[in-house]
Amino acid sequence: MSLVTPLKRTAIIVTDMKKSLRFYRDVLGLNVWVQGKMGKEVPAIFKLLGVPPGTVRWVILQSDDVDWGMVGLFELRRPSPPRLRQPSLAQANAGEACLVFHTPDVDAVHLGAKKLKLRILCPPTLLEIAERQVLSKEMTLRDPNGVLVNFIQNVQAGTMTLSNQFPGLQRPARKPALKTRRSGASSPGRSG
């Protein structure tokens, strides 16, 4: 038994909240679940982030109405945290995390990223895993903060039964209508 739930949220310390929202909200279509601003009145947030007290603007985004796998954007000010130097923005780096999203339209994501002039590491490309009979169209980019993000559009699921939608959004099967018992019918478990 796992000690933790499935991944609840990925938090990104952003350098520019407006630009980050233009990508995650406007291009990807994630909706704002909750947002706010905190200051020195909430000292625990700064302890959790390991930074001196200041101000934090935060926006938590979700896909449709699913409250798992969300993206949290946190903009720290007064003082701003130091920027990390990444070995390379043109490739994945050892120890680096990558956000992965499924999408029904990877070309639309590509177009939106190009309009924002984001760094695209790989434009939409077909990826085949022959032994699993899987075919996907994928792309990888850097978000406005330099975070590595991969998008997958399943073309053929093969043996992996993948979906471009979050499985929690599948509508439950309709329950069969209750059959009314005819008068005089025997009850289950009783013999005639």
Structural overview:
By secondary structure, the protein is α/β, with parallel strands linked by helices. The protein is built from three helices and eight strands, in the order βαβαβββαβββ. It has helices at 17-27, 43-49, 106-115; strands at 9-14, 31-38, 55-62, 70-77, 98-102, 120-129, 134-142, 148-156. The strands form two sheets. It has a four-stranded mixed sheet, with helices on one face. The protein has a four-stranded mixed sheet with strand order 5-8-7-6. Strand 7 and strand 8 (148-156) form a beta hairpin.
Label this structure with key terms.
alpha/beta; 192 residues; disordered C terminus; 2 domains; 2,3-Dihydroxybiphenyl 1,2-Dioxygenase, domain 1; Signal recognition particle alu RNA binding heterodimer, srp9/1; globular; 3 helices; four-stranded mixed β-sheet
